[in-house]
Design a protein that fits this description.
Elements: E1 10-14, E2 18-23, H1 39-50, E3 60-61, E4 70-76, H2 79-90, E5 95-102, E6 110-120, E7 125-129, E8 137-148, E9 153-159, H3 166-173, E10 197-205, E11 212-216, H4 224-229
Parallel strand pairs: 4-10
Antiparallel strand pairs: 1-2, 2-4, 3-4, 5-9, 5-10, 6-7, 6-8, 8-9, 10-11
């Protein structure tokens, strides 16, 4: 199978063990039933070409972003890094920060949200409840308001748990659906088909060198609101 390189791929960080790229809102991280070229294969092609590597390139997927979401995605370039990163994500030793443009300003400028999410596989959607329900999973995040205009607010979000569509679902539950997210109650789609949720940064201890690493992903250029609302680009 031949994959072409995504020429506009933005590499945010790379060394012998890890590579991080800035995902566009239209890309899938791993292969799925659509058959579209996943980001993982584009990164493999980039490594193969850049380092002139013979044979199959090793690349481990350590976490995923929903297709309509943009931002930083971290991959492992060695099996040692993959094993350690998988454990770090599992134990929440990786700090992920998201930015979300929402329709309404939340009642509180800063808060911690705790809900019980029930996932509906058929609809590929999660529902948030204030109390525990059968088959529900506890979801927690904290947010703070970091920018606003007349019609929109920019929230910085920190996840405590990693549930299906968690940020989208929990923010919609408090009356702040994410811009462009029709599935969770925003009235209009974004022109690019994505939603205004961006994985802004990722902080972790390097799985091999043990250095503290922070990787920041610039916000998408095709959405002018990011620049208007952002405290910094």
């Amino acid at each position: 199978m031949h994959y072409h390189i995504v020429t506009n791929m933005e590499v945010l960080y790379e060394d012998n063990h890890i590579i991080a790229v800035n995902k566009n809102s239209s890309e899938i991280v791993q292969g799925d039933k659509t058959g579209d070229t996943p980001l993982s294969e584009s990164v493999k092609a980039y490594i193969k070409e850049k380092y002139n590597k013979p044979g199959e390139v090793f690349l481990g997927v350590t976490h995923r972003l929903d297709r309509p979401v943009s931002g930083v995605v971290l991959f492992a370039r060695t099996s040692k890094a993959l094993t350690r990163l998988n454990e770090m994500f599992r134990t929440q030793a990786v700090k992920k920060t998201y930015w979300a443009i929402v329709k309404a300003a939340p009642e509180q400028t800063e808060a911690r949200l705790e809900h019980y999410l029930v996932r509906n596989e058929k609809q590929n959607k999660s529902y948030a409840y204030d109390r525990e329900k059968p088959h529900s999973k506890k979801a927690a995040l904290s947010y703070r308001l970091i920018g606003r205009s007349d019609n929109y607010s920019l929230l910085e979000v920190h996840l405590e748990t990693g549930r299906h569509h968690q940020i989208r679902c929990q923010l919609a539950k408090i009356g702040c659906p994410i811009k462009g997210d029709l599935k969770y109650g925003f009235p209009r789609s974004n022109p690019n088909g994505g939603i205004s949720l961006h994985a802004r940064s990722i902080e972790f201890v390097h799985p091999v060198s043990k250095q503290a690493i922070t990787i920041v992903a610039p916000t998408p250029e095709d959405e002018k609101l990011w620049a208007i609302l952002s405290p910094e680009r």
